[in-house]
Amino acid sequence: MIRITTALTWSETLPAASGRYAHRYADGYHEVVEVSVVGTDVHYRTKRATPEIKKGATVAVVPETTDGEWYGPLDDQSSLALIPIAGAAVTGTLSTTQATTDLSAVGDGYYVGWWILVLTGTQAGELQQVSAFADTGGLLTFGEMAGAMADTDTFTLVP
Description:
- The chain is mainly β.
- It has a six-stranded antiparallel barrel with strand order 6-7-10-9-8-11.
- The termini are close together.
- 0% of the residues lie in helices and 41% in strands.
C-alpha cells in the first residue's frame, strides 16, 4: 500500500538533536539523513551528488545557514509518511515504458524501486514501479502503461 502525505511542517531551523530527519533542498529535492549534533555543530550524510558535494559525503552545516528545510526527528521510517517528489514529462523519449522528465541532479539509478503515479494527461491514475533512471536527460523507465505520457504531463514519485 502506498500512502502519500504532503502536509508536513517544514522548518528552516537546524536540528537541535541527533537523529534521522527529512531534508528538503531549495530546489525541491528530498532525502532522509542521519544528523549528528555536537554542541553547535550540525553534520549530516547526504545521498545527493552536487557539484560542491560528493554523494555520501558528510556535510557540516554552520548555524548561520539553513541549507534547506528540515522535518523531524523521525521516530522510524513510517513516521516520514513517504515524501513524494513532483515531476513532469518533457519532450524527448515518451513511450509506454519510458519518459524523459524534468528530474536531475540525484544520480543514475536513484529512483529505482520507487513508484510513479501519473497525475495529469491521458494516463492520469497509472501507477508503475520505476526500474531505471538516467540522470542525464532525466529518463525514467517503468512498468508498461496503457499509453505514453505526453509533454507537460505531471506525476509524483513515491519511495
